[in-house]
Write a structure and sequence with these properties.
Length: 384
């Protein structure tokens, strides 16, 4: 089993991961880079360039390969500016010099550029590229991709997964423990926001508002069936994907603690988890006013961790079989399967959830009313 595991750059992760019964590869990124990262914001990462090489050397010594994340969905056209382009190439040379084995990208142009000028680097296409059809998979492979991390939304579309596997020769990866909403309407905006915030030439020094996390967290709390609809995979169901021909299994959570990262990796490596699935998912805490610099924020606070849910993993035995025949993309409106499962396996404190909903609602109101800004809503600054 090939397992792709995030690192928060904690050295204490390396040895335990190397001892798992899986072929483990680490992935990670520094707080900012030329290309940026669309998975999480820079506020969750604490590492500098001159430390990265030593960390990767430690990983290699333990038998772990390293994948560097360059998966922002856009560079704001800065890749076409001559000076910035040269910085981009210099950044890729640096990545090569510190011993990185592969890179994960979203921008199609970067696949071609890297395969032409840095052919020794393996190129993995990010789930952020939304490869969710046979046609898109074939086109991405034709650009030179060695591996494709499929759009998480197709994790339970088994007819499509089989078709994509038959259509391409490159490695295929799925994401296992994300809590993104199924068919999330905030997804594109979220990745774009994070990508720009983590780019070294960002004009507002990495400042962003976590609107998308606020909103999707609120949606899950209002409707707990959304938790079941999220396209996570149980450790016990890994074999279903192996039988299709999926090559690599990826856990997410670069901002999680080392303990939680290792707990998730261990569960999937063992293909079994006794307890609450919530404990191995990548659960993101909403924040207000996030910055990678000293730029002041009106709010600049963590709202606090979301309410804990107990998701009885043992009660989900056989859960995945339903999706082998169901077309969720077109049939969701007249199906109550996820609601019935949610009622059966999810336990939570109603008062705690209601209190958190009130906090999120107040924070979102502050954003939509423009009260977060120093200028009053409806008053424009005229630029000449």
């Amino acid at each position: 089993m090939k397992l792709l595991v995030p690192t928060n750059w904690d050295p204490d992760l390396i040895l335990p991961l190397s001892r798992l019964e899986a072929d483990v590869q680490l992935y990670g990124v520094l707080p900012t880079s030329m290309i940026g990262s669309g998975g999480r914001g820079p506020d969750n990462i604490h590492m500098v360039e001159n430390q990265a090489e030593g960390y990767i050397e430690q990983a290699h010594s333990a038998g772990l390969k390293f994948d560097y994340i360059l998966n922002a969905p856009s560079m704001g056209n800065m890749e076409w500016d001559e000076n910035t382009h040269q910085e981009l190439l210099e950044h890729l040379r640096w990545i090569t010099s510190i011993g990185v084995d592969s890179v994960t990208v979203t921008i199609p142009y970067l696949i071609e550029l890297i395969k032409r000028q840095f052919p020794h680097l393996k190129v993995r296409v990010s789930t952020i590229a939304h490869v969710n059809s046979v046609a898109r998979a074939k086109l991405v492979e034709s650009l030179g991709a060695d591996s494709i991390t499929l759009d998480i939304n197709v994790n339970r579309d088994f007819t499509l997964l089989k078709a994509i596997r038959s259509a391409v020769n490159c490695e295929l990866t799925i994401l296992l423990n994300n809590l993104c909403l199924y068919q999330c309407p905030y997804e594109y905006y979220h990745h774009d926001t994070l990508g720009h915030a983590s780019q070294s030439y960002n004009p507002i020094n990495g400042y962003y508002e976590d609107y998308c996390v606020l909103r999707c967290t609120l949606d899950r709390l209002y409707d707990i069936s959304q938790i079941i609809k999220c396209r996570w995979v149980r450790p016990e169901d890994i074999h279903v994907y192996e039988e299709i021909g999926i090559d690599v299994f990826k856990t997410s959570g670069r901002s999680m603690s080392a303990e939680r990262i290792l707990n998730a990796a261990t569960a999937y490596s063992l293909r079994h988890y006794q307890g609450s699935l919530y404990d191995i998912w990548n659960v993101i805490t909403p924040k207000i006013g996030v910055s990678n610099s000293d730029l002041p924020s009106v709010q600049n606070k963590v709202i606090g961790p979301p309410p804990r849910f107990y998701i009885d993993n043992q009660a989900l035995e056989g859960f995945i079989d339903f999706f082998k025949k169901q077309n969720c993309l077109s049939g969701c409106s007249h199906c109550d399967y996820c609601q019935r499962i949610a009622n059966k396996v999810i336990q939570f404190d109603r008062d705690e959830v209601d209190e958190y909903i009130a906090m999120l609602t107040a924070s979102l109101d502050n954003l939509s009313s423009s009260r977060m800004f120093k200028v009053k809503a409806g008053v424009r600054k005229h630029l000449h």
